[in-house]
Amino acid sequence: MSPPLDHVARIQAEWARERPDVDVAPQAVIGRLHRLAGLLTEELCTVYRRYGLSEGEFDVLAALRRAGGPCERAPGELAAHTMVTTGAMTKRIGRLEREGLVTRRRAASDGRGRVVALTPAGRELIDAAFAEHMGNERRLMDRLTPQEAAHLEVLLTAWLSRVEPPLGS
C-alpha cells in the first residue's frame, strides 16, 4: 500500500486528471517549497511577535546589529540588506524609532544623508530575539537528519545562485 498523498500530491493528481496535456511535475518541488515557506514563516514570526516585532522590523534590527559597532547604516543600505523598498523601510524605521529601538540622525560625512542606529534598548532587544530566533531555527532544522540538512543546503544554494541576481546587481 502506498503512503497517503500530501496536499501537493493531491493537487498534482487533480491537475493531471483535468489537464493531462500539461506537465505538473514542477509542482512536486515548487508547491512543497511554497507550502513549507509559509509554514516556516509562521513558526519564525511566533518568536518575533514575542518581542513585539514584525518580521520586517526584526530584519531591520538584525541588519543594524550585524553592521557591528556602532550598529548603524544608511536607510538605503538597510533596504538593500533587507530586500525591501525604501518606502517600506521608512515606515519600519519610523515605528522602531517611536518604540525607542533606533534613532535617526544626519550623516557626519554628508549632511544631507541620514543614518539609522540601534539604541541600547534596540540592541538588547535584538540580541535576545536573535538568540531565541536561532534556537527556533535549530528546532525546525532538527526535523531533518544532519545529512538531509547538509544535502538540502547544497541543493538550495545551487538553485538560489541560478535564480537570484548576484549581490550588487
Count of the separate structural domains: 2
Q: What gross morphology would you assign?
A: elongated
Class derived from helix and strand content: mainly alpha
Number of strands: 3
Number of helices: 7
Helix content: 55-70%
What can you tell me about this protein's structure?
The protein has 7 helices and 3 strands, in the order αααβααββαα. By secondary structure, the protein is mainly alpha-helical. It has helices spanning 7-18, 26-50, 55-66, 75-82, 86-98, 120-141, 146-163, and strands at 72-73, 102-106, 114-118. Helices cover 65% and strands 7% of the residues. The chain has 2 domains: 1-50; 52-161, Winged helix-like DNA-binding domain superfamily/Winged helix DNA-binding domain (Arc Repressor Mutant, subunit A, Orthogonal Bundle), CATH 1.10.10.10. The chain has a 3-stranded antiparallel β-sheet with strand order 1-3-2. The model has no long low-confidence stretch (mean pLDDT 91). The radius of gyration is 21 Å and the shape is elongated. Helix 3 packs across helix 4, helix 3 packs across helix 6 and helix 4 (75-82) crosses helix 5. Strand 2 (102-106) and strand 3 form a beta hairpin.
